[in-house]
Amino acid sequence: MSTNVLICDDSNLARKQVLRSLPESLSSDAQLATNGEEALAILRNQNIDVLFLDLTMPVIDGLGVLQAMQDESIELPVFVISADIQPEMQSRVLNLGAKAFLRKPVQLETLNENLKLHGIL
Amino acid sequence: MLDEFCLDISNRLNTGILFLDCDYNIIMWNRFLEVHANKNDNDVIGKSVFSIFPELPRKWFERKLSSVIQLKTQSFCGWEQRHHLFELFHSRPITTDSHFMAQNCTFLPVEISGELEGICILIEDVTDVCHYQNQLNKALEELALSNRIDGLTQTFNRKHWEECLAKEFSRARRHQHDLALVMLDLDHFKLLNDTFGHQGGDLVLVETAKAVTKLLRMGDLFGRYGGEEFAVILPNTNLAGAEEVAERIRQSIAKNTIRYQDRTISVTASIGVATIDSIDTRYEDLISNADIALYEAKAKGRNRVCLAKETLLA
Amino acid sequence: MSAFDLSEDQQDCLQELINVAMGQASDQLARYLNTFVYLKVPSIEQVKSDQLFDSGHQNLEAIAVVSQGFFGYEGIRGEALLMYQPQDSHRLADLLGYEDDEMSFDEQIIDLSSILTTTFLNVFASQIDNQMSYSAPRLISANQGMVSEHLTQQAFNWDLALKVRISYQVTDYSFNCDMVLLIPEEAIINIKTVIDRILEDF
Predict the structure, then answer these.
(1) In this model, does residue B311 exceed pLDDT 50?
(2) Is the pLDDT of residue B153 over 90?
(3) In terms of domains, do B161 and B293 share one?
C-alpha cells in the first residue's frame, strides 16, 4: 500500500527541497499545495497519510491549517517545516498537534530521521 | 614565519588592535595602543579592560559586547555618536582642538572552529576626519546663515523672510492661530539719499533696522522686503496687538536721531498692518492687504499706522 | 526584459532564501532581546532607482535612514538602508536593553540597524555559501531630501533595489522598518548566477 503525501508551501523551491529529501516511495505520487486553503481542500476530500507544512504562507497560514484540522478532527501526522524557528513558535506548533518541527532549509538526514521516529518509514 | 610576519605588521599598523576574552580581560594589544595609551605591555596583558581604561562606560560597553558575543556578529561605534571610547593621545594635539583621539571602533567576534574565543576591537584614529568635518559643518552653517541675511541691515533677506511667512501662514491656518503682518516704508527716502548721499541712506537703513529689532519679541520675524521697505511677521498676534507694535515702531523710528558726518538725520515711516482672516487663502494675500494699508498711510500724510480693513478685500 | 529582471523561478528562489534568512535573524533577535517576535511574510519588491520613493512612504518628511555597505565573495555587494518612521522609535533604548541616558537616539537606531542588517545578511550569505563583510553603519539623515541626495551620490550606479519590508512586532511593543538592499547591476548578475546554481540542483 502506498503512502499519500501532501506538501504545502508557497515556495516552489521549498516544495522541491522537501520532495527531493523524501525517499522515492513517498515522493513519486506526492501532491502539492501552495497555501493553507488549497491544502485544507485536499485534506477534506482525499485520504492523505502525511502532511509537510510551511508556516508563513498567504491566504491561510500553517497555524491556520493546524487549527482547522483540530477543529474538523482531521487526524494525520504533520511535519512543520518553517523558517520561523523561534522556540515559542515551535512549542505553539507542537501544541496544535504537529509531530515535529523542522527548520528550513530542510536537510535530508533530519527529515528521514523524523519520518522513522514517527513510524512513517 | 608567517606568524612573525603578521605580528610585525600588526605592530606597524596605524590602527589599534585590542583582543579581549569573553570576561573582558585583555589577551593582546598591538604597539599602536601601547604607544597611544602610554602604558607598559606587562601592566596590561591579563588585566580587565575596565581597570586599564577606567573611562569606558561600563554598562554600555558590556551590553555592546554581549550583542557581539550572542549574535556572533560585528558591531560598531563611530565618532559621530561617541567622539571616543578610549582616552588615547593622538599625534595632532596642536593643529586640532580634540584633547583625545577621535575614534571609529569595530567590535569583531573571534571564532575558532565555531567556538567564540573572544572579541577583537579595532580602533581607528579619525581625529583628522572629525576635525575637518567639524570645520566643514561650521562653514556650512555660516553659509546657510549668509544665505538668509541681508548683508547691509543684518535682518532676514526677502527670500528667506517670504519662506518664513509661508511657513507661519500655513501653521496659523492649521492651528487656527492669529497671525499679523506689519509692513513699513521709510518716508521720502529718495530725498534723504539725495541730501546725504547713499552712505547716509545706508546708515539710516542700518539704524532703523537696529531700532526696530529692539522692539521685537522672540519669534517675531523681521526682514528687509525691498529698498527702504521692511516687514515684520508677528505670530499669535491679533489686529489690536499688531497695531500696538506698529505704533511703537513708528514712534521709535521718528524719535531716532542718526548722527552722520556731524549732521543729524531724522526719518519717519509709514506703516500698514494686516492680519490673517478667513478670506485669505494664500500668504501673498496677507502681503497685499498690508501693502494697501501702507499706501493708505502714505496717502493720508505719512508717519502714521493704517490697518487693513475687511472691506478692502472685496 | 533587462539583464537584471528575475524569472519566476529565480524570484521564488530569492524569496525563499530571504524567508529563511528573516526567520533565523528574527530568532536571533528574539533571543537577544529576550522577547517573542511576531513574524509576518516579508514583502519583497524589486524597485528601479527612480521609483524607490514612489510608494509606501507617504510620510517622507521625517524619516531616519541608516546605511551600511556589505561585501561578499563572487561580486555580491551592495548597500543596506534601514528606514524608520520616527514615531516607532521612541522606545528603542528599552527594546535594546540600554538605559535611557546611556545612548542618544542616533546611536540607538544605528545599533539596531546594524543588528538587523548583519544578522539577516549573515544567514542569507551562509545559504549561498558566501560570507559578508560590512562597513560601519552611518546615519544618513532625518529627512528625505538628504536621502535622495545620498542615493544620487552613490559610489556605484545602482539600477535595482531589492526592497524587503520587515515588520517586527514584539510582544508588548511594535515597530516597523523597511530594509532596502541597493544592489548594483553587476552584483545582481552575480546573484542570479548563484540562484541559477541552486535551481540547477533540482
Answers:
(1) no
(2) yes
(3) yes
- pLDDT for A4 equals 92
Contacts of A34 in chain C (CB under 8 A): none
Check whether B49 has a pLDDT greater than 50.
yes
Q: What pLDDT is recorded for position A98? A: 94
Contact B71 C118 (CB under 8 A): yes
What CA–CA distance (Å, rounded) separates B139 from B191?
40
B199 plus B259 within the same structural domain:
yes
Residues B60 and B92 placed together within one structural domain of the fold: yes
Task: Clarify whether residues B181 and B126 are in a common domain.
Answer: no
Asked if the structure places residue B139 within a domain, the reply is no
Interface test mutation site (partner C, options B69, B81, B103, max chain C beta carbons within 10 A): B81
CB B71 to CB C28 under 8 A?
A: yes
Where chain A has pLDDT below 50, the residues are: none
Smallest Cβ–Cβ distance between C19 and the set A12, A20, A56 belongs to A56
- C-alpha to C-alpha distance for B21 and B18, rounded to whole angstroms: 10
ipTM of the complex: 0.82
CB pair distance less than 8 Å for A86 and C27: yes
Q: Are residues B155 and B102 in the same domain?
A: no
pLDDT at residue number C145: 60
What CATH number should be reported for the domain holding residue B109?
A: 3.30.450.20
Please tell me whether residues B65 and B196 are part of one structural domain.
no
Pair B124, B245 in one domain: no
Would you say residue B143 lies in a domain? no
Q: Within a domain: residue B141?
A: no
What per-residue confidence (pLDDT) applies to C103?
A: 76
Q: Taking Cα atoms as reference points, which of B210, B200, B202, B213 lies closest to residue B264?
A: B200
Q: Using N-to-C axis directions, what is the helix angle for B58-71 and C8-33, rounded to 10°? A: 140
Per-residue pLDDT tens over the stretch A56-70 = 888 899 999 999 999
- Asked if A36 and A59 count as a contact pair (C-beta separation under 8 A), the reply is yes
The answer to whether A35 faces chain C, any CB pair under 8 Å, is no
- Give C71-104 as a 3 state SS string: ECCCCCEEEEEEEECHHHCCCHHHHHCCCHHHCC
DSSP letter at B149? B
Q: Does B122 or C166 have the greater pLDDT score?
A: B122
Nearest chain B Cα to C140, which residue? B80
- Do B17 and B161 sit in the same domain of this protein? no
CB of B60 closer than 8 Å to CB of C102:
yes
State whether C118 and B73 contact (CB < 8 Å).
yes
Domain boundary (B109, B133, B157) is at B133
- Give the model's pLDDT for residue C59: 45
Q: What is the 3-state secondary structure (H, E, C) of B157-193?
A: CHHHHHHHHHHHHHHHHHHCCCEEEEEEEECCHHHHH
Per-residue pLDDT for B209 more than 80?
yes
Domain range for B189: 149-313
CATH at B156: 3.30.70.270
Residue that terminates a domain, selected from B133, B160, B180: B133
Amino acid C88: pLDDT: 59
CA-CA distance, A67 to A34, in Å (whole number)?
18
Q: Using the predicted structure, report yes or no on whether residue C43 has a pLDDT greater than 80.
A: no
* Residues of chain B neighbouring C104 (CB-CB closer than 8 A): 81
CA nearest A105 in C: which residue?
A: C20
Please give the mean pLDDT across all residues of chain B.
Answer: 91
Asked whether residue B142 is domain-assigned, the answer is no
Domains of chain C (ranges; CATH) run 8-200 (3.40.1550.10)
pLDDT in tens, B212-258: 999 999 899 999 999 999 999 999 999 999 999 999 999 999 999 89
Task: Please give the domain boundaries of chain A with CATH numbers for all domains.
Answer: 5-117 (3.40.50.2300)
Name the domain count of chain B: 2
In angstroms, the Cα distances linking A78 to A48, A99, A118, C162 are 10, 6, 10, 34
